Amino acid sequence: MKSRYLLLVVGLTVAHAIGAALAPVSGDEAYYWDCSRHLDWSYFDQPPLTIWLMIPFRFLFGETALAVRSPAILAGFLAGLFLLPLVRRLGGTTRDAALVYLLMHAQPIFALGFSYTSTDVVMGTAYLGAIWSAVAVAQGHRRAWWGLGVALGLGFLAKFSIIVAFLPAAVALLSPRGRADLKTATPWAAALVSALLTAPVWIWGAQHHWDNIVFQLSGRHSPEGIGLKYLLEFIGANLLLASPILAVLLVGSCWPAWRRKDPAWRVAVAGAVAPFVFFGLVALRTRVGAHWGGPGLMMMTVLLVLTGFGGRRMRQVGAIVGFSITGLVLVLALLAPLFLNFEWEYKPRPEKVSSEKLARAFGTDQLVEGARQRRDRWAREIGVPPESIYVGSESYTKTHLSAFVSKGELESRFLHIKGGKHGLASLYWYPPEDFEGSRILFFTENPGQEDKLRQHFRRVEVEPPLVIPIGEAGQRTLIVARCEDPQNPRPFLTRLASSTTRDKSLP
């Protein structure tokens, strides 16, 4: 039976790998890829684990979508391996673990998420490992503290929101056996290991005036007045991410699990609800990521199978609906160009969801080729090597997609002139002297950036726009400008001090 379970996990992992290899890389994934080319202790807006994991896969598979998405594929595989011992500790069987893994794949968030690299999917697997260890702690297995410490430490290196796992860890201490362990050295030594694993984040922070910590605590989101708008948006998004029927069953399974009054089961319930409680409270003040409840959905799926809540028939119907939603998403992705034949927008968030924004998901290859041709033409006109001219944008996704699609042949640079908060890691890669007298071929789809460029460069010459046809009626129109000699690269091209300044500050 165990071999069949392993075959199931391997089979679904292969399916994820095939899907990952075929789909084009997103802007955020290209951002992580470019970060992996600049190995560092950590990064401005992301801890390093997901980025580090990409490096060996790039060595194996080259600069491909499969290499970029291998951290997510690995996370899905490890999640399957972690589920079996977790389910068994809660009294389930190998067959129950298989059903949990299948029901997870009936939820679009996992069916698609295990083929898409994000810090969330890697952290979610670490979260699952932490709950498995916390359950074992509650059952009196002292060595499980080591697993808990490692899972929390690596989870922190994947995404800072692993802190929500401290609630189920605290619930484990409510058990007599868990409290008794505090009289031994094991949990304290495990805590030290966990803290040491997080060291890269603090080392990077100490090197850069704690910019990463300040950003997480105060710069990532702009709190608003207390209201229900974002909370309802968060709940509604998770109804779709888990599929509506399964979502109701998942939430409902928490109560019968809690009523068992078993310390291990109460740890599992705490693991299921902690992400929703924490981010639900945050959503009262600001918008949160729809997928941030993912780790809780993992644990709710475990509870749903083991409690049998809702009955077998309802779980089957929920699974069918979930697979149907996933299939619909894939079909819509294939038919997306058809939606570019007319103009439309999502009224609550037109800046994010509209026909114009959809068009920007296509034509990246043509954009990169057009940028290369214009860069080469400029280089010929002034008699310099093409590689001495950078290609840049105020969009970090365009910047890093250009680098990825060109396999690193285009030297791309991000220009932080629009005021965004995310995607700023590259501002810590290049010192100011790298930009002295530099030339940047700038491209954007946002009018008005030319005036901002003139505030930063001694010379800006706007070229004819780059027009990329998309489908029958859609198109992308990019403003292109030749920018020469930045007057002061800090802080719009770099946040680093010059090496000369650093040298003078040394004793």
Question: In words, what does this structure look like?
Answer:
With 507 residues, the chain is α/β, with parallel strands linked by helices. The protein has two domains: 2-332, no CATH class; 364-505, no CATH class. It is built from 24 helices and five strands. The chain has a five-stranded mixed β-sheet. Helix 22 (396-405) links the parallel strand 1 (389-393) and strand 2 (412-414). The longest helix has 25 residues, at 65-89. The N and C termini lie far apart (66 Å). The relative contact order is 0.10.
Short account of what is shown:
This protein is α/β, with parallel strands linked by helices and 507 residues long. The chain has helices at residues 2-22, 27-36, 49-61, 65-89, 94-105, 108-113, 119-138, 144-158, 166-172, 176-181, 186-197, 199-207, 211-219, 229-241, 244-252, 254-258, 263-282, 294-307, 311-335, 355-359, 364-382, 396-405, 449-454, 499-505, and strands at 389-393, 412-414, 439-444, 457-470, 474-486.
Which helices and strands, and how do they pair?
Elements: H1 2-22, H2 27-36, H3 49-61, H4 65-89, H5 94-105, H6 108-113, H7 119-138, H8 144-158, H9 166-172, H10 176-181, H11 186-197, H12 199-207, H13 211-219, H14 229-241, H15 244-252, H16 254-258, H17 263-282, H18 294-307, H19 311-335, H20 355-359, H21 364-382, E1 389-393, H22 396-405, E2 412-414, E3 439-444, H23 449-454, E4 457-470, E5 474-486, H24 499-505
